[in-house]
Write a structure and sequence with these properties.
Keywords: Pyridoxal phosphate. One of its GO terms (biological process) is polysaccharide biosynthetic process. This is dTDP-4-amino-4,6-dideoxygalactose transaminase. It comes from Sunxiuqinia elliptica. The chain is of the alpha/beta class and 373 residues long. It folds into two domains: 223 residues, Type I PLP-dependent aspartate aminotransferase-like (Major domain) (Aspartate Aminotransferase, domain 2), CATH 3.40.640.10; 126 residues, Aspartate Aminotransferase, domain 1. Helix content is 36%, strand content 15%. The protein is built from eleven helices and 15 strands. The strands form four sheets. Strands 2-10-9-6-5-3-4 form a seven-stranded mixed beta sheet, sandwiched between helices. The protein starts with 7 loop residues before the first strand and ends with a helix. The structure holds ligand T4K. Ligand T4K binds next to helix 3 and helix 4.
């Protein structure tokens, strides 16, 4: 990826001062432990569990491998109910496990899976539900659990957008059987690339740790065909430094979001998401939804207009996952099954949002949106 000067992208990774990171690198160079559950890896697991208010966390090389492994941890097979309104990695994790995705429509308010549509999609082959807390806004977790309990299904949350989000004063990753996080460069907390699985008990944590290390359960014991998806010491060290700056970064994000909310609420044909109830948000994304009829311009016309002004928003999540060639022939991918997902996918633009973006730039973006027609 080549970046152009004077261009505003949807995000820009937060990084600490290099000086702050150097002593950690020195330590790695001195002790020559580069990976395989080294000291920084262990320290980051401990600090993150405390910070996120979760019992057990296992670090990964990225969020996608965490998802792929999470399905193996619970021995998920057959069919899994999921959402088409997400990043493609959500459904790819099923593909990699030879599991059939069954798409269910979303609820229009936040773009998360609609729990009331889940029951109709359950078949004798269904073993789990894989919802996504899209943009960091919590799914209807109580209702999803209720359905999972009735039908004996597992729930794995793709919480890739949810670092640091609390729901009803609990870390959001406490819900479901497992949750996965992403620490990719574009996320609110990054280790350049990285991810994690959150679980509730020690035995599961042990199984996850085996599976991410080829299945090794001892020097000569392989418990399953695991993969190599370990986080290395440089990533873990960066995570330790990043964590110190997290709150400050979220406060800066909030200030940006406050401007967007104030400036964009009154534009005819532009919808923004409400603030979710009982939630401490991480302000990960700022999506707007363009209603062509009322706004007087299509989403793509506005997207292009922003680009002409060097502002590169992103259409997360367009196209729907169910429209990609490897999934579009599935019965559940039929567009008539997914009206709200299609609507949001056709209307969304995620606007630039990151701690270091200047308020003047946000006012400029709002101004362009206000005067584009
Ligand atoms: N589940 C969900 C719901 C997810 O959203 C994701 C990832 C995953 C699972 C999988 O987690 P990981 O395996 O990635 O840990 C980006 C990210 O690559 C992806 O992590 C993320 N979701 C997705 C929503 O967005 P792209 O293709 O849009 O990224 P890219 O490279 O175009 O970056 C967007 C902008 O960010 C660039 O225009 C400029 C800026 N940028 C990006 C990078 C990578 C930088 O300034 N520096 C950088 O290093 O997918």
């Amino acid at each position: 990826m080549k970046k152009l000067n004077n261009t505003i992208y949807v995000t820009q990774p937060s990084l600490p001062e290099l000086d702050e990171f150097i002593p950690y690198l020195q330590q790695i160079w001195d002790n020559k432990i580069l990976t395989n559950n080294g000291p920084f890896h262990q320290q980051l697991e401990k600090e993150l569990a405390d910070f996120l208010g979760v019992p057990y966390i296992s670090l990964f090389a990225n969020g996608t491998l965490a998802l792929v492994t999470a399905l193996q941890v619970l021995r998920i097979t057959g069919e899994v109910i999921t959402t088409p309104y997400s990043f493609v990695a959500t459904t790819h994790s099923l593909w990699w496990n030879n599991i059939k995705p069954v798409f269910v429509d979303i609820e229009p308010e936040f773009g998360n899976i609609n729990p009331e549509k889940i029951e109709a999609a359950i078949t004798p082959k269904t073993t789990a539900i894989l919802p996504v807390h899209v943009y960091g806004n919590p799914c209807k977790v109580e209702r999803i659990q209720e359905i999972a309990d009735i039908y004996g299904l597992k729930v794995i949350y793709d919480a890739a957008h949810c670092f640091g989000v609390n729901y009803k004063e609990k870390g959001i990753c406490n819900f479901g059987d497992l949750s996965i996080l992403s620490f990719h460069a574009t996320k609110v907390f990054n280790t350049m690339e990285g991810g994690a699985i959150i679980c509730h008990d020690k035995a599961t944590k042990k199984r996850i740790d085996y599976l991410k290390n080829f299945g090794f359960a001892g020097e000569t014991t392989i418990m399953a065909p695991g993969i190599n998806s370990k986080m290395n010491e440089m990533q873990a060290a960066l995570g330790l430094v990043q964590l110190k700056h997290y709150q400050e970064n979220i406060a800066k994000r909030k200030a940006i979001v406050d401007i967007y909310r104030k400036e964009l609420t009154t534009i005819n044909g532009i919808t923004i998401l409400p603030m979710p109830e009982y939630t401490d948000s991480n302000h990960a994304y700022f999506p707007i939804f363009v209603d062509e009829k009322n706004y007087g311009m299509t989403r793509d016309q506005l997207y292009e207009r922003l680009k002409q002004n060097n502002i590169f928003g992103r259409r997360y999540f367009y196209p729907l996952i169910s429209e990609f060639p490897m999934y579009k022939e599935l019965d559940s991918a039929n567009p008539t099954n997914l009206p709200f997902a299609r609507k949001l996918a056709n209307q969304v633009i995620c606007l630039p949002l990151y701690p270091e973006i200047k308020p003047a730039c946000i006012f400029n973006i709002c101004n362009i949106i206000n005067n584009a027609k």
